[in-house]
Amino acid sequence: MSKPETPYRKRALGDRPLAPETLAMSYGYDAKLSEGSIKPPIFQTSTFVFSSAEEGAAFFRVMGGRAVHGDPVTPGLMYSRFNNPNVEVIEDRLTVFEGADEACVFSSGMGAISTVLMAFAHSGDVVLQSTPLYGGTETLIRNVMPNYGVKSFDFVAGAPEDEIRQSVEKALQAGKVKAIYTETPTNPTNELVDIEFMKRLADEIGERQGYRPPVIVDNTVLGPIGQKPLKLGADIIVYSLTKYIGGHSDLIAGAALGSSEYMQTVRKLRSAIGTNLDPNTCWMLARSLETVTLRMKAAFEGARKVAEFLKGHPKVEKVRYLGFLEEGSRDHRVHARQSGDSHGSTFSFDVKGGQEGAFRMLNALKVAKLAVSLGGTETLICHPGTTTHAGVDPELRKRLGFTEGMVRVSIGIENPDDLIADFEQALEAV
Question: Is the peptide bond before 394 cis (omega within 30 degrees of 0)?
Fold first, then answer.
């Protein structure tokens, strides 16, 4: 169950459901409790005063999963590693964009991903993963988690179903599959994982091994505006909030969202290992969430124009933009079902001349910023093979279609005509 309804946690105006963009302005916050402040203050405190010893004991019972009759449904404020007013506001508001029961926020996107995977996959267990993933996630699953006895088996994001089922068989022979982890669209190649098929696989695996693994989807690239994985059959969504939701390249944060059943497990581990998010960053995220729809729609439209320019340029070999998927293809059908006409603003393209050609173009750019990350208000561009995915095995990169000349761009909210002019002059250096 989600949190109980209160006067400041209502999602409808009479019979009219309110849109997430409307709820982002006030949901989960009561101005009367904060001297009438129109925005939540920053509660920069480590601990909170209980009204009585009995109340403190009850709060800790609820937080620890030991509630007894008469205890509150949710714990009151206790200690900022467990909960904090700013944490609760941003968690509440994230749920309305995704239709989730609960959200947990973390000190980084990798903090969210590692905590979720550790909550479900333990020594001797198996993680079934799609590939490619964000470079940090690939490193975590392939190189770090084996140190703790967790094995993994992969399948290429756009592979045929029978090929994916072969990976499932290998995974089941190696141990109990405790999580299915995917990222769609993939970073940086924009390949697609069929979320509905992942749900069917989880159901089938559950029948065979007696435990249904949760389907975990990294939704960072399209965000809450472009795709709703929970409605498509995912159990848990993870985010780097640093990207589009934060959106201003001025914070680091992550999130996980899903049903209360799953989030209780995740929240308990977050409290234990301390991957929680600080109040100031939560406050900044609440600020950013108010404009996420406006920013993402503007970036999506700008990306369409820039991609169309790059597609026709003689020094660009391939543009991996979701709006260019071949009509009638498997990827086109999956994308239409999962995201409609939301093609995102992050994509990669291949520059002629390999790494040398890509570097020449990157070094000549004047408006776009040569930096890692994505989803900021400014356009960011990088060479994944030597930056974000440099730690990924070169043979794996080659298998996944990475080329020496591939660059990743995240279009911001600048005037797209200025960006086109910038790419035009930079490509002259190739």
Answer: no
Strands (E), 147-207: 151-156, 177-183
Query: Which of residues 235 and 7 earns the better pLDDT score?
Result: 235
Q: Tell me the HSE value of 57 on the side-chain side, using a 13 A CA sphere.
A: 5
Cα distances (Å, whole numbers) of residue 150 to 31, 115, 168, 181, 199: 46, 14, 16, 13, 22
Q: How many CB atoms lie within 10 A of CB 33?
A: 11
User: Is the pLDDT reported for residue 4 higher than 90?
Assistant: no
122-140 pLDDT, tens digit per residue, is: 999 999 999 999 989 999 9
Residue 79: count of CB within 10 angstroms of its CB: 15
Give the gyration radius of the chain's Cα atoms.
22
Give the separation between CA 374 and CA 299, rounded to whole angstroms.
11
Taking the domains of the chain in order of start, what are their residue ranges? 12-288, 292-429
Residues 39, 276 contacting (CB under 8 angstroms): no
* pLDDT level of residue 6 (50, 70, 90 thresholds): confident
pLDDT digits 0-9 by tens, 400-412: 788 999 999 999 9
C-alpha to C-alpha distance for 79 and 82, rounded to whole angstroms: 6
Q: If DSSP codes are grouped into helix, strand and coil, which group holds residue 105? A: strand
**CATH 3.90.1150.10 applies to domain 292-429:** yes
β-pair partners for 382: 408
pTM of the predicted model as reported, rounded to 2 decimal places: 0.94
For the chain, the farthest-separated pair of C-alpha atoms sits apart, in whole angstroms, at 73
Q: Which two tokens stand for residue 232?
A: 């498509």
* CA-wise closest residue to 216 among 140, 104, 117: 117
Tokens (6 digits) for 337: 């079902």
Residue 356 CA: distances (Å) to CA of 312, 353, 363: 21, 6, 11
pLDDT recorded at residue 389? 87
């995740």: which residue's tokens? 266
- In the CATH scheme, what is the code of domain 12-288? 3.40.640.10
User: Given the structure tokens 């239409």, which residue do they identify?
Assistant: 336
Instruction: Report pLDDT for 394.
Output: 85
Nearest to 252 by CA among 98, 376, 133, 94: 376
Q: How far apart are CA 423 and CA 418, in angstroms?
A: 9
Q: Are the CB atoms for 226 and 270 separated by under 8 Å?
A: no
